[in-house]
Amino acid sequence: MANRKKIIITLDGPASTGKSSIAKRLSNTLGYIHIDSGSMYRAATLFALRLDPERILRPNVFVKYLSEINIDFKKINEEQKIFLNNEDVSHEIRETYVTNEVSNVAKIPELRLLLVNKQKEFGKNKGIIMDGRDIGTIVFPNAECKFFLSAKVEVRAKRRYLEQSKQGINQTYKMVLDNLKMRDKLDTKRVNSPLKKAVDAIEIDVGNMTLDDAYEKLLTYIKNQIV
User: How far apart are the C-alpha atoms of 216 and 146, rounded to whole Å?
Assistant: First the structure.
């Protein structure tokens, strides 16, 4: 597919719908750059929490340090890593204490403006696939190919719980479910760039699909756009 035209592909949807996993696989197939916008907000959240030894989020303090945040992506041994001020934080941003605050940090207007501008820069030359909450609505409203992945919160919670169990993260299913419900509420109700489906996005319910099934379905749609 190297000789086909380059486009911008967006994948939006709530947490734990498999957006990043599917986007990563599609990027490898297409030879596209993959940007996980959620990991950018996680990195910013980690930065915010590090400002306080008690790991208490203080937005009024955090916004004063936005100019000191530098987030970048690098491929190391064929695996994409995220760097916060030149430090590989790919693992730490997945820790529970970061996850619990991401939606609270993501709603800070000054941060959203900073990261949205950064995300737009990534897409200047096209050939990019980006996943998140507001990519098809705010970041790339004119993207050639938009998707919105959905699934019932109970299904998403079960998937997240099983993933975390494999990683040795000790959380009960109820804790995971409650966290996702809270994040859904914060993501959809926030004033700035709320999670919602773009009018021209293709919605796909992945609740009863494997990642392979979802990947194949999205790839079929994409191929029709890059012929």
Answer: 15
**Domain range annotation of the chain:** 8-220
Per-residue pLDDT of the chain (227 residues; tens, 9 = 90+): 555 789 999 999 999 999 999 999 999 999 999 999 999 999 999 999 999 989 989 999 999 999 999 999 988 887 889 999 999 999 999 888 998 899 899 889 999 999 999 999 999 999 999 999 999 999 999 999 999 999 999 999 999 999 888 878 888 999 999 999 999 999 999 888 899 999 999 999 999 999 999 999 999 999 988 76
- pTM of the complete model: 0.88
Domain 8-220: assigned CATH number: 3.40.50.300
Alpha helix (H) residue ranges in the chain: 19-30, 37-50, 59-62, 96-99, 102-106, 109-122, 153-166, 173-189, 211-225
